[in-house]
Amino acid sequence: MKFVFALLFTLGLFATGNAAASEKLAQSSGCMTCHAVDRKVIGPGYKEIAAKYRNDKSAEAKLVKKVKAGGSGVWGSTPMPPNAHVKEDDIKAIVHWILTLK
Known about the structure:
Blueprint: H1 2-28, H2 46-53, H3 59-69, H4 88-100
């Protein structure tokens, strides 16, 4: 029983660390200039994005493509510029983190 508790505690710390690292990655990549976790800035808040795509199994791939290429029309008329300067693995990590928010 102690082993199970220790394992769950360790996994919880690991997940928290990954979330913090992904949020810092979003900040250092410039994403937080237009987005915040829990409110609209220029673009939608990350929690709103997560809620919109919660039941979409293909959301992660679609959002990675959209973040990289940019786009408009889903959240209004303000376009999101392309983020080709951000490594694809970093975009994947950021999108994965966003989709885990509740």
